[in-house]
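Researcher: Batch entry, complex prediction.
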Amino acid sequence: MQTGTQLARTNDSATLPVVAPRAEPVTRSAPRRSDVDTWGRSERARSLARSLFSPVYDLWFRAEWEGLEHIPGDGGALLVANHAGAVPPDAPVIMHGIETELRRPVYGLAAHLFRDMPVVGTVWSRMGGVVGHPDNAYRLLHDEGQLVLVFPEGTKGPAKHVRERYQLQRFGRGGFVEIAMRSGVPIVPIAVVGAEEAMPIVASMPKAARRFGLPYLPVTANMLLGPLGAVTYFPAKFRLRVLEPVHFNVPADQDRYSRSKVMEASEDIRLRIQSALYDMLRTRRSIWH
Amino acid sequence: MGRRVLVTGLATFWGGRLAQALEDDPSVDVIIGLDTKEPTVRLERTEFVRTDESYSILARIVRATKVDTVLHTFLVVDPGAAEARRMHEINVIGTMNLCAAVSAPGSAVRTLVLKSFTGVYGSSKEDPTFFAEDTPRPNPPRHRSELSLTEVEQYVCDLGTDDPDIAVSVLRFANVLGPDITTTLTRLLELPAVPAVFGFDPRLQFVHEDDVVRALRFAMDHRLRGAYNVAGDGLLPWSEVIAMVGKRPLYLPPFATDVFAGAGRWVGIPPMPPEAVALLKFGRGVDTRKLRAAGFTYLFDTPGAIADHVGALRLRRTVGESTPDYRYDEDVEAFFRRSTAVLTAVADERH
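Model: Structure tokens for the complex:
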């Protein structure tokens, strides 16, 4: 059933020639009040953190880089490093170094461990921490062409005893390689010396860790400093070596990649970082130099 | 021949809105609206049929009217809006009957659009930043509204698989904002101090109420198949949303938040279901590229939807409710719809 107006309207449009196609609607937006991006990172918060961290970076850890030119100036790349220290200082050092040297943001993929800790989770997210979900990695690397940092050892790296320092743990199941292949970006391995001695673990309390739902609960040498030791690093000298980027000659956006190829590449990257670490340790005069 | 459309939940906000929009479309011949209650908006040529909540008479209506399109908007997606029993009755049993009616012999239905909610993805610490339509949830659904909607979607999807002639689209809308909508979240935003969980600042995504209606019509017109996320671009921290509304946060403790949110009743905070508390801790974002690739364009992105909502809120604070509530009167409606004395007056008056 149609009313008079509708009939009239239809007749009108039938007699009048169509002059122009209907314009696409314009999406209305509004000014933002913060600079928090969709990932939760805030450049303002990062720059504040960088200015607070820079004395630690320059004077305490005296971080020194080589091979920074291996990190691409634009486009996505997956940065892969070894992970160490009870409360690992390598992530902030790497992010600080690359952001100040290359002026590019770095997003750090990590387990969701922090997300349900009040304040910690929010700060972690503002600093560029992103939940290590394959969808997140793909979107950051492939769609947005960002730099993404991962530690394939996961918590096995920081949880290890000081006796095992600079012994790279298993690189998970190679998920990071698969993500890089799917996103069509190179992997840039980074070998980090210094994090192990900044907060070495001398004992571990697996039962208590389980009770608190933590992956590990360490006793660190820093605890000799008393309660301050929980937040104070030893001034170990940081040396970071960026290795040659690894390109995969496989097409991007495949549903599946050969497991053997993935594991092979993963093991290859692990060995490269491992041998770079040995090489750097051979020339190191002491922990502090 | 024009389309013959059946809208469920005519008396609800969405059913009414959608029917009004369809009335303006000359390619739609017949609009039939189902509900348990009388419509709350003025409708000009929509036929209102009163049913019970679980649509037991739907099969007869579908057969008798030969509708070709069903827009299923009568779902409780906001867990604060109905108690468990009623939600189950409306969502699950209602959809079950609807699917049965649509696929029964004699049904002419070829398009079914379901108005679902991105709440089906849940909200947890393991979540990806953007859920795509096929991203599996990290955890199985736990809260009752999530379980209910998941079941509803399953019924509707099964229908699409069993009967490939029927184009079944499931639109998952993000939390809605706009001048007229009221939900648990909008109620929180109207409080003098807006509840937030201390130490958490989740990122949320919104869709404007006009885009909801437009997306439902888009899905109907293009006979989309499968699930589509519908949300404005951008994810905003809850703290920024509160700031845009011009309010201050009221921090709930980060531990046992559910308990404290429940106790908020005593100080005038509207009930916050566990789904809402989880959302205020972990937020939710969805990937909206699939619908955009199908050709849909948004009138508002997330900041735009918030700004429009805030503007209307402020206006209402000054001038009060602008439109008096419409009251359905059967005799009057029948007169306007069927009397030969009525020509064009009604249509003009509404605009």
